[in-house]
């Protein structure tokens, strides 16, 4: 065994024992001995994920992807680190790349990666929602300030007491109306949140990310139906024989689920 | 991530029950834990065998639920006896293909299992235990889902 692989093995042992700092150091030495092995970078990225060193996880994954562009683990760890530093778009992009690789290679991590895709979508939606609400508040405050300014301008040139009180009253009405319109919009946003049945996988009860359809016309999340087929190669509804090769992606449903999640990110974790 | 699938799935079944309720005669009495639930179950028609009686089902969800079936047995307490049925042993073990590894399907749920057991009682008119009940109850150390049941009487 080469020096580099020996160091890697030793790093793995430290990692298993929970000594992530030690593992990080050993993987670094392994990389010095052999800078061209992609697995060394993903292993070090995994140790650094545990340590919360997000920026160096990102650097390791990018080095790995330069050496091996189809590396599922690199995309997966990259997504986790990017999510931790709130880079939602990149995180989702890499989670989806990892998911695609898992689906083509029938990788055991498909379930975990699917969960990661959902988390990225939910967090990205949450972030956008927060920004949108903040902007709404700002617009409301600005509009109210303009109404007040308008009133003050009119009062400055109006001497008649009756006219003055009419101006005051009108402004108060307008301000109340404006606030109630914004309030109604916010309430509308909080309206009852329901996930439609068509978007839900009947095995995990999660919203679907990559629905696949069986001979019966029923769709399931790829990760969970694969998990089921590993143990029982049968259709969950009819119990007729079913193999992974019989599954077809349901593209229209996939798109519908995506659109629903874009508007209703909370649903990723209903 | 089988662990997280169990946790989420059971939590969501719970949410659905809280939102939509359960069919008549079935009631969740303890569902706070995500590993073990208790249901009270009654038969709705006037079947003289089960009339006016309340039974209790215990569900144990393994890490691999719902890929693997839950372990479902009748509890045996003074107020909650084990119902008399040719497919139910006196220690509460239920002989139902749905609950075995072969008959189970991950699209089933705690609710659908309760309904199957309820209808299994409703349609029965034999006041008896499975053949070899005493011997089985004395000797059995296996977990219910691993038992290869022999279906002595498939007409029930």
From TrEMBL, chain A:
Query: What Pfam families does the record point to?
Result: U-box
Which of UniProt's keywords are assigned here? Isomerase, Repeat, Rotamase, Transferase, Ubl conjugation pathway
Q: What is this protein called?
A: U-box domain-containing protein
Q: Which SMART domains does the entry link to?
A: TPR, Ubox
Q: Which residues form a coiled coil?
A: none
Q: Which InterPro entries match?
A: TPR-like_helical_dom_sf (IPR011990), TPR_rpt (IPR019734), Ubox_domain (IPR003613), Znf_RING/FYVE/PHD (IPR013083)
Q: Which residues form the U-box domain?
A: 194-267
Give the range the annotation lists for the signal sequence: none
**Which one of the record's GO molecular function terms can you name?**
ubiquitin protein ligase activity
Q: One GO biological process from the UniProt record?
A: positive regulation of proteolysis
A cellular component term (GO) from this record? cytoplasm
Name the chemical reaction catalysed here.
S-ubiquitinyl-[E2 ubiquitin-conjugating enzyme]-L-cysteine + [acceptor protein]-L-lysine = [E2 ubiquitin-conjugating enzyme]-L-cysteine + N(6)-ubiquitinyl-[acceptor protein]-L-lysine
State the superkingdom.
Answer: Eukaryota
TrEMBL record, chain B:
Q: Does Transmembrane helix show up as a keyword for this record? A: no
UniProt entry keywords in alphabetical sequence? Ubl conjugation pathway
Q: Where is the UBC core domain?
A: 5-156
Q: Sorted alphabetically, which InterPro entries does this protein's record hold?
A: Ub_conjugating_enzyme, UBC, UBQ-conjugating_enzyme/RWD
Q: Which domain of life is it from?
A: Eukaryota
Pfam name, any one = UQ_con
Protein name (Swiss-Prot/TrEMBL): UBC core domain-containing protein
Specify the species.
Answer: Hypocrea virens (strain Gv29-8 / FGSC 10586) (Gliocladium virens)
């Amino acid at each position: 065994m080469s020096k580099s692989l020996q160091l890697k093995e030793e790093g793995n042992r430290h990692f298993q024992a929970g000594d992530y700092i030690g593992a990080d150091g050993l993987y670094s030495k392994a990389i010095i001995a052999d800078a061209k092995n992609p697995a060394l970078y993903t292993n070090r990225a995994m140790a650094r994920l545990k340590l919360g060193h997000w920026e160096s996880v990102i650097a390791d994954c990018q080095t790995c992807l330069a050496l091996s562009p189809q590396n599922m683990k690199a995309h997966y760890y990259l997504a986790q680190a990017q999510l931790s530093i709130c880079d939602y778009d990149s995180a989702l992009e890499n989670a989806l790349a990892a998911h695609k690789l898992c689906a083509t290679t029938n990788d055991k991590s498909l379930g975990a990666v699917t969960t990661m895709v959902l988390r990225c979508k939910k967090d990205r939606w949450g972030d956008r929602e927060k920004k949108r609400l903040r902007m709404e508040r700002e617009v409301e405050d600005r509009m109210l300030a303009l109404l007040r300014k308008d009133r003050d301008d009119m009062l400055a040139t109006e001497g008649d007491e009756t006219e003055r009180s009419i101006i005051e009253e009108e402004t108060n009405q307008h301000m109340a109306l404006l606030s109630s319109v914004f309030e109604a919009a916010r309430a509308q946003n909080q309206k009852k949140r329901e996930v439609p049945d068509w978007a839900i996988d009947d095995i995990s009860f999660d919203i679907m990310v990559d629905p696949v359809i069986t001979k019966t016309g029923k769709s399931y999340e790829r990760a969970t139906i694969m998990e089921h087929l590993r143990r029982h190669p049968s259709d969950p509804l009819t119990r007729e024989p079913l193999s992974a090769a019989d599954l077809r992606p349901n593209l229209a449903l996939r798109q519908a689920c995506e659109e629903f999640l874009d508007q209703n990110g909370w649903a990723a974790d209903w | 991530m089988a662990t997280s699938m169990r946790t989420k799935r059971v939590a969501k079944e719970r949410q659905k029950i809280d939102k939509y309720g359960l069919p008549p005669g079935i009631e969740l009495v303890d569902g706070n834990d995500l590993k073990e639930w208790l249901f009270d179950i009654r038969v709705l028609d006037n079947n003289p065998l089960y009339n006016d009686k309340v039974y209790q089902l215990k569900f144990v969800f393994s890490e691999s639920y719902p890929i693997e079936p839950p372990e479902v047995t009748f509890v045996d307490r003074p107020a909650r006896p084990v119902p008399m049925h040719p497919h139910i042993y006196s220690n509460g073990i239920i002989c139902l293909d749905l609950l075995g590894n072969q008959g189970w399907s991950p699209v089933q749920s705690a609710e659908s299992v309760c309904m199957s057991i309820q209808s299994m009682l409703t349609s029965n008119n034999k006041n008896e235990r499975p053949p070899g009940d005493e011997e089985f109850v004395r000797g059995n150390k296996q977990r219910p889902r691993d038992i290869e049941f022999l279906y002595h009487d498939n007409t029930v």
